[in-house]
Amino acid sequence: MRWIILAGQFFYIPHLLLYAVARSKNLIKADLYSTQVCNKKGVRLLYDLSYELVTNRYFRTLFYFRTPGLFSKILRVFYPKHPSFTIDIYTKVGGGLRLAHPYSTILNAKVIGENVYINHLVTIGEKNGKRPILGSNVEVHANAIIIGGITIGDNAIIGAGAVVVKDVPKNAIVVGNPARIINKVENK
User: Count of CB atoms within 10 A of residue 146's CB?
Assistant: First the structure.
């Protein structure tokens, strides 16, 4: 199995070239190593990047979001992104986005901060032309909905199935429909 993946990585050399000329190298690297605290360089970084591009279509979708342009669009024809994971092109996403199999997930926020965790079936969208702002270190769990021109503070946790239509202060844990604060995050 390992040799099949290694052979598949060979075909991702065009992606490595795209990475080499990308303006968002630091963001891509932060996404790649978002679950680890490390500063990898050189050959290992290229190996890890090509490995994720081969084995993880969600990461590939994020990679294409970080590398817009004609060459990226051409590569998408041969190496498609995941069809059920969408990031709006006008969303500003900080580095270190962690994706836990974001099946049927839509990210249409004004801003998503750094080191944000997104689970599956999440909808972050606009209402009346206004889009949400998510702070850094936010966790959004399965089937949560965040809509409208609201702000989710840093270190907030949005519980599974929560429907958030009002601002959430930093360090808050919210659950329910409509979402309500049930606790504060301690020393995250």
Answer: 27
Burial class (CB in 10 A: 0-12, 13-18, 19+), 43: exposed
- Superfamily of domain 85-184 in CATH is Hexapeptide repeat proteins (2.160.10.10)
- Domain limits, the chain: 2-78, 85-184
Catalytic site residue from 82, 101, 120, 141: 120
Active site residue 120: yes
Give me the helices (H) in the chain, please.
2-10, 13-21, 25-32, 42-55, 57-66, 70-78
pTM: 0.86
Token representation of residue 9: 């990585």
Q: 145-155: per-residue pLDDT in tens? A: 999 999 999 99
Residue 4 above 70 pLDDT? Answer: no
